[in-house]
Amino acid sequence: MKSAYLGVDVGSISTKGIVIDENNNILAEDYLWTEGNPVLAVKKVIDNLEKKLKFKPFKVRGVGVTGSARRLIGTILEATVIKNEITAHAVGTLSLHPDVKTILEIGGQDSKIIIIDKGIVIDYAMNTLCAAGTGAFLASQAKRLGIAIEDFGGFALQSKNPTKIAARCTVFAESDLIHKAQTGHQQEDIIAGLCQAVVNNYLNNVGKGKRILAPIVFQGGVSKNVGVIKAFKETLQEEIITDECGHLTGALGVAILAKEDKKRMFFNFNIKNINFETKGIECQRCPNKCDIICVYKDGKLIDFWGNRCERGAIEKTTLK
């Protein structure tokens, strides 16, 4: 049976899964909302991927995990590779665009910029606290305006005179949006203004001080918004490259890393009936009083983290 490799990207808003073959061809993919429960989301993604692979002669021999919940999900899936989002997105993008110099990524609650020179990451930045340059901000404004987020970009393209929206933070942008709507600005102009506000916020925060050179690849869930794509293009005065699988690039990258890793496994897709549980405990063995996270599989401790010294180490064979 031919070898395949699984990549999982678990973010705060969405969870992505992808299975590739030896030539990086995508055999199956899945994308759904995390909804505050990364374990359940991954179970659903794995189940969906198994159904899509059911009649294909492939066996998963390596598993890679990235995203904000990578440690937890990596433990659950017994991943052979666990990598940060910067590495995963860079590898995934380079597999599609070997000459890329700038990666713009905007997801649900975070965003990042990656600067690449000759196939090597030389600089990067991620957003910190402000959500005004993310997909969650656009989704909340779409709801406020009574428009499906999927239609947001189309409305923006209809605008002939985009409304200027304060882009310093979510609170300012929302209050400014309400004011502009009440003073008679057209809905499509407000929407185009919101798309431009996201771009301005991103470039003034995440992209601040970065030399943005073409080729430029835009990815993440917001890369599906044609209004934001247009705003980036007009602001940067450069062509913006997007991919059909742009929201899956992190999962693709970590799947490729799993393929390149020498560790091999026989991955079992049947995890939906396994009970995984996490518990937090406060270590009392030294003044640090570390908050330690314990992960259980069907009641058995399989991993833990959070301890800052050896006294916080937990014996997996004794703790139940």
Care to describe what's here?
With 320 residues, the chain is of the alpha/beta class. The chain folds into 3 domains: 2-92 and 251-260, Nucleotidyltransferase, domain 5, CATH 3.30.420; 99-243, Nucleotidyltransferase, domain 5, CATH 3.30.420; 276-312, no CATH class. The chain is 34% helix and 25% strand. It contains 9 helices and 13 strands. The strands form 3 sheets. It has a 5-stranded mixed beta sheet. The chain has a 5-stranded mixed beta sheet with strand order 8-7-6-9-10. Strands 11-12-13 form a 3-stranded antiparallel beta sheet, with helices on one face. Strand 11 and strand 12 form a beta hairpin. The chain is globular, with a radius of gyration of 21 Å. The relative contact order is 0.17.
Entry summary:
This protein is of the alpha/beta class and about 325 residues long.
What's the layout of helices and strands?
Blueprint: E1 2-10, E2 14-20, E3 26-33, H1 38-53, E4 58-67, H2 70-77, E5 81-82, H3 85-96, E6 102-106, E7 111-117, E8 120-126, H4 135-145, H5 152-157, H6 170-182, H7 187-205, E9 216-219, H8 226-236, E10 240-241, H9 249-260, E11 276-282, E12 291-297, E13 300-305
Parallel strand pairs: 1-4, 4-5, 6-9, 9-10
Antiparallel strand pairs: 1-2, 2-3, 6-7, 7-8, 11-12, 12-13
Helix pairs in contact: 3-9, 4-7, 6-7, 7-8
Q: Report the order of strands and helices.
A: EEEHEHEHEEEHHHHEHEHEEE
Read across the widest sheet, the strand sequence of neighbours is: 3-2-1-4-5
What's the shape?
globular
Mean pLDDT: 89
| Rg calculated over all Cα atoms | 21 Å
Question: What distance lies between the first and last C-alpha atoms, to the nearest angstrom?
Answer: 39 Å
Task: Give the helix proportion (percent range).
Answer: 25-40%
CATH architecture of the largest domain: 2-Layer Sandwich
Q: Which strand-content bin applies to the residues? A: 25-35%
Provide the CATH top-level class of the largest domain: Alpha Beta
H/I helix tally: 9
The profile of the biggest β sheet is: 5 strands, mixed
List low-confidence stretches. none
Corresponding CATH superfamily of the largest domain: ATPase, nucleotide binding domain
**Number of separate strands:** 13
State the CATH topology of the largest domain: Nucleotidyltransferase, domain 5
Q: Please identify the structural class as seen in this structure.
A: alpha/beta
Number of domains: 3
